[in-house]
Amino acid sequence: MSAALEDLGAHIGASMTHAILDQNIHVGELTLTAKAEEIAAVLTFLRDDPRCRFTTLIDICGADYPERGKRFDVVYHLLSMHLNQRIRVKLETDEQTPVPSVHALWPCADWFEREAFDMYGILFSGHPDLRRILTDYGFQGFPLRKEFPLSGHVEVRYDAEQKRVIYEPVKLNQAFRNFDFLSPWEGMTLPGDEKAGGGS
After folding, report:
1. What is the C-alpha to C-alpha distance for residues 40 and 36, in angstroms, rounded to an integer?
2. Environment class of residue 4 by beta-carbon count within 10 Å: exposed (0-12), middle (13-18) or buried (19+)?
3. Following DSSP, what letter does each residue of 141-196 receive, concatenated?
4. 175-196 pLDDT, tens per residue?
5. Contact 44, 105 (CB under 8 A)
6. Gap between the terminal Cα atoms of the chain
7. Mind listing the pLDDT tens digit for each residue in 91-143?
8. Using CA atoms, how far apart are residues 83 and 85, in angstroms rounded to an integer?
């Protein structure tokens, strides 16, 4: 399997020298790193080349590395049923630079790209309808970014009277109580405990 992946990687690298920055094989999977502006050309080649035939787009997802200048990875997972093989293609981008949309190559990329935009704020140029898909209209922030807070001071709920989703401050129906967190078996003296201590 590794020899076949190395051969495939060499073929892709030789054919796309202007677009592929790096490639490696790890745990039986080939990963290509591509230039962001060349992603449509790379994916078109992987789909149409007779030695590749990665005709199925499985997923597009993001990853956040806030310590980098180009903080986001956009990762494409492809399947070649002809080769019975998967391949991963990734690229780096930042918060302002859009990545070319590939919805013209695979219509399902439309929703995958919208999800990456909704969760990370990754922009896609040429997308026909780049808007949130999982969060509510008016949602603030991007939930899968590393700096997104884990808790907040507002809650979201559907209001039947207003017939829309509303945001409002968190309300606690029960007053805070002081819990001592002691085990019922520790810190208490029960009648008869003096006998359990044993005599000397």
Report:
1. 9
2. exposed
3. S-TTSTTS-SS-SEEEEEETTTTEEEEEE---SS---------TTSS---TTHHHH
4. 666 666 666 666 666 677 666 6
5. yes
6. 74
7. 999 999 999 999 999 999 999 999 999 999 999 999 999 999 998 777 888 99
8. 5
Neighbours of 104 (CB within 10 A): 13
Mean pLDDT rounded to a whole number for the chain: 88
The CB-side HSE value for 20 (13 A sphere, CA atoms) comes to 21
Global pTM exceeds 0.90: no
What are 11's two structure tokens?
A: 């073929």
CA distance 141 to 124: 17
Residue 52 belongs to what H/E stretch?
none
**E-assigned strand segments in the chain:** 20-26, 29-34, 56-64, 72-80, 85-93, 99-100, 124-125, 154-159, 164-169
Q: Looking at the domain that runs over 2-136, which CATH code has it been given?
A: 3.30.460.80
Closest CA to 75 of 104, 45, 107, 102: 102
